[in-house]
């Protein structure tokens, strides 16, 4: 499935980072409405088409919420209750017969998303998995998962690199990357999670025979060990998927 493949330090990624930094430093606090596109483009010194592309990426990553006619709003920063307890989507989808179907497993150059969240240099490579998670025979989640570069994984725990296999196809295709990591290494992993709304899109819709405009819940996660990101992911749950079973706060 096509993904953006620009280098991490492209103008678009730098603009992405500038807006995220403005959110982190309180210039645009959680819940605040961003200036209009013309005003924000002028404020940042960029063109409106370039800004619009980055706003779409920020929406896909759950950083902002965009509504036609209402502009863009910064997402609330606290994660949904229960997401601070790190669980693979196979567990979040609750009871039922779970089956994972691997659609892609490959080494690739950093994308805007993986390069930023995993702190990857342009010369590094990330292992990318695309997996469809079925519940009782029905597609319930598209999982797009990227691992940190092999040297980082081995420095954190060699078992993490081993969990990805050598191909880089997974030794166990019936699992998401997060599930493979959690099973491979008993490490204190933490995650930063955001929730947003999007649409299924043409190619994902074709894969499960659903219209491209089908609404979907987007969960993005950056998984870290001792502050070092080891995995970044986008989990897309189309309308009609089972409700997420979130663990209570402890």
UniProtKB/TrEMBL annotation:
Provide an example Pfam family for this protein: GntR
Q: Which residues form the HTH gntR-type domain?
A: 9-77
UniProt-recorded name of the protein = GntR family transcriptional regulator
Under the heading InterPro entries, the entry gives:
Bact_HTH_transcr_reg, Chorismate_lyase_/UTRA_dom_sf, Tscrpt_reg_HTH_GntR, WH-like_DNA-bd_sf, WH_DNA-bd_sf
Give UniProt keywords alphabetically: DNA-binding, Transcription, Transcription regulation
